[in-house]
Amino acid sequence: MRIQDVIPVKIRKQLLAFHQSLLWKKSFNNFKEAIDKGEVPSKKVIKKLIYSWGNQGFSAQTDYLETCIKYTLSTKGNIIECGSGLSTLVIGYIAKVQKRKMISFEHIDVWAKRVQENIDNFQLDNNTIYVRQLKNYGDFDWYDITNIDLSTYDLVICDAPPSNTKGGRRGFIHLFKEKLEKNAIILVDDTIREDEQQMIEEWKKILDIEVNFYGTFDPHAVIRIK
Question: Its Gene Ontology biological processes (predicted)?
Answer without folding.
Answer: methylation
